[in-house]
Amino acid sequence: MILKTLNGEQFKALVTNGAKNLRLNFEEVDSLNVFPVPDGDTGTNMCRTIENGVNTIASIESTKIGDISKPLSSGMLLGARGNSGVILSQIFRGICKGLSNKTELDVMDLVNAYKLGVKQAYGAVVTPVEGTILTVFREATEYAAKKVTKDSTINDFYRFHLEEAVRSLNHTIDLLPVLKEAGVIDSGGAGYVYIVKGMVKYLDGEEIVAELSSEGSNPNHEISGQPLEIDFDAFGPDDILKFGYCTEFILRLQNSKVDIENFDIQTIIDVLNGDDIKGDSIVALNDGSIVKVHVHTKDPGLVLDHMRKFGEFLTIKIENMALQHNETMDEEEREENRKIEHKKYAVVAVAQGEGVKEQFEAFGVDVVIGGGQTMNPSTEDFIKAFKKLDADNIIVFPNNKNIVMAAKQAAKLYKGAHIEVILSTSIPQCYSALTMLDFSSDDLTLILGNFNEAIRNVTSGEITRAIRNTRVNGVIIRKGDYIGILDGKLLTASRNKTVCFTNLLRKVKKIKEKQVLTIICGEDVTEADKEKLLKSISTKFPYLEFGAIDGGQKVYDYLFAIE
């Protein structure tokens, strides 16, 4: 089909086809990993991000492109996983800003929207790195903008955009030395190219057949999960309302009632916290004129009356929380809805492995989010964790460089507490920092300083298996080798995991000045493996105090912290 203009129905189909094409190819994108480690998850993260957006708009029937663009952006924002997923959500957030309040658009409108996408994506990254998805998207947009005229079609724009995106992607290997040495192109850029290829296929009349993941919530219809089946015995005719009502709604701000452009979501939070309503477990998010609210209250009618001062409701869900406290509710739902005592400071940390999770909880972490390598939590996963807490300040440990951006994005969206994201990029860093967990000073600056100092003083190590032959940092690696990574840099390889571990320890700067070594053993480490390693360390590094815990983490046989 040849399109001179693009409407909402066509834009929805365009993006959906792009998401389906990525779904068919995400494993190839995952494999484009610089390190030969079975933890590549860029394709998975980008797939889940765009699918959350597509699932959000799936049931919206509208020819107005503005009616599709806003919920698409919101869905991707909440579903964003990993750095590439967050950047992808920001790309579409910028594009969707250019589509808002429009019924349809021509090719020049599309050019302007994509330019906004470039601005939004680059603005969301503290230090933009060229040779990544950012470069691929920017160069493709700039090229298409130069090639089209007001007489061009929508097809022309996407054809030029894809043409340059492919060229730019192939050039990423020359822009980043680490890609060149490993012999791979940028994985995030590759994921984006698959999305655009799917869009072009739609314009060429090819509808891709693929089953999209339904994981993740649909913010247009529900704010938290699926409705429960009603247990009528959970609240009888003689029962007294104890827990109140879980009240959730989506509100459309109205120009006749508020200044939408300058509206501050804190206004709604203050009303819900006020003496009239006395709400708790408050979560309030807004994207343009759309406001999503979750609150626990004894008087939902009063909440609704107050909220109509700002706009009109699109959806409302009110549930007696006695149903949520019924024994028939599954453990996850009970955990999500249980009341936690108010704290001035609370801690959220990401961890993988039951042993690691248990250790973090023993240190005093309030909520542990399951995740890590290959399992990056989404922006919405962080928000759900924040919702479980009743705290003035929430301190977050992402514990993976690919999770930091999602944590920061969640911190910006969540208004129910002050959020601080610690730049922890490994489990060992967090382990060390948590040994400094002490809120007695009641000084947030001092508390954060202690955490950051602990992270600066610890050296983190990882031992895992190589899944392909390659060369990284001058180290020649064969498939099946154990490889040692120190503070994010691959430094050694060996056919023997104990030898790999001790060789990596020797790479630690001024190791004889170090005192304590903590080893976290993965799920595949046997007692014999552990005994052999500890004996080797005792012999070769007698000046170190050391100990091992069973972390149970996947992929990494050993993690360690030395300080």
How would you describe what is shown here?
- By secondary structure, the chain is an alpha+beta fold.
- The chain folds into 4 domains: 5-203, Serine Threonine Protein Phosphatase 5, Tetratricopeptide repeat; 244-324, Alpha-Beta Plaits (2-Layer Sandwich); 339-456, Rossmann fold (3-Layer(aba) Sandwich), CATH 3.40.50.510; 459-562, 2-Layer Sandwich (Hypothetical Protein Tm841, Chain: A,domain 3).
- It has 20 helices and 18 strands.
- The chain has helices spanning 8-31, 42-57, 65-79, 82-99, 107-124, 133-147, 154-175, 177-182, 187-203, 266-273, 300-307, 321-324, 331-337, 354-363, 379-387, 404-413, 427-434, 444-457, 497-506, 527-540, and strands at residues 5-7, 104-106, 245-253, 280-287, 290-297, 311-320, 343-351, 367-370, 391-397, 418-421, 459-465, 470-472, 475-477, 482-486, 489-494, 516-521, 545-550, 556-562.
- The N and C termini lie far apart (63 Å).
The main sheet orders its strands as 15-14-11-18-16-17
The CATH class of the largest domain turns out to be Mainly Alpha
Structural class: alpha+beta
Mean pLDDT: 88
